[in-house]
Specification:
- The chain is an alpha+beta fold and 427 residues long.
- It is 29% helix and 27% strand.
- Helix 7 packs antiparallel against helix 8.
- The chain is globular, with a radius of gyration of 20 Å.
Length: 427
Amino acid sequence: MKVLVIGKGGREHALAWAFHKSPNVTEVIAAPGSDGMGDVARCVPIAETDHDGIIALAQDEQTGLVVIGPEAPLVDGLADRLQEADVPVFGPTAAAAQVEGSKEFAKQMMKKYAIPTARYDVFHSLEQAKRYVSEQGAPIVIKADGLAAGKGVVVAQTEAEAFEALEQMLDTKAFGEAGARVVIEECLEGEECSLMAFVHGETVVPMVTAQDHKRAFDNDQGPNTGGMGAYSPVPHMSSDMIREAEETIVRKMAKALSAEGTPFTGFLYAGLMMTEDGPKVIEFNARFGDPEAQVILPRLETPLDEVITAVMSGEEIAARWTPDSCIGVVLASEGYPASYEKGTALDDLLFDGERSIPFFHAGTKKTPSGWVTDGGRVGLVTAMRPSLKDAMDEVYSVMGGLALDGLFYRTDIGARAVTAVRAPGPR
């Protein structure tokens, strides 16, 4: 079977790598793919926005499966177009993808179907939004309603910080139409956890847990990013907590979307806060997390295509996972998530073929003189070992041996879990 992966980032590199390992997959094709994916996929320069081109490619190649990585083409209806063309696709329709494309939609669904989440209200008026913040007090969470590449969330510790975020979204339009409406939420306290599942209608196969680190700098300081690193599993998530989250949140949302006539197919992502009252939803996403995909997929022992094919046929397959821990640290360009330069040379040691898990490319380019940066998040260095501490020691040993002029990374990914310090962090 040929598999077509849509996208070009680190998540898509990890998906292509996982499919490439499968004995059932004859070839992996990536559109548009990237220079860094060339060792596991044949890259075809068709943009994620070129729906006609992607459909033609899938039909010409007679692909047995298309997997859509990024959120934007899902919200724009690429899965709908592929379904209409009778191309097997693992990804939600535009209607189902609203669970990520509109935070207001997701919140309304959670309220209607009693899925635990933070109290909230929705505003498009700056004056009314500010009045609400003044009434509720800080800390408080401000979210752009639409897609903002993981950066449209501000955890405001003060009223002034909340006002500044509201002005950026509603007045200066920092996120364009994505911030034309804002969702304002109570600030939940506890440990975060990402719980994802393979979903097709009401068929749900949960994945292992992971924890992403969104803040740019150590000790959860600095602005929110698309993710600066992740690890899996999450040791402070007991099996009882995981089962509760699966039943009251992930399976419940899958059933809710089906009940609304918008059944979900694809990777359903629940970003959770483990509060004193149990798990509550921070956000839903309509696709695999990034960088969570890069630390979850290496732990999957069942071929990825077998899990997806089984789920799409209505089977809740018992996927096999290694008990080992996997950790990944993002290498980023200085200045990210704000402005940054491209073209910085990358250390050849990043591409050491001796490591069992490759460097997952996100923003890189191959030039005649070697690899250079081509994005804010450059890529992810990953290690997998029997314990999280061993995996953390290995990944930071690799990072410490690199020449990193013009680049930076967090030095504390997984540190709280390793030291068993559970300092609550609001988000």
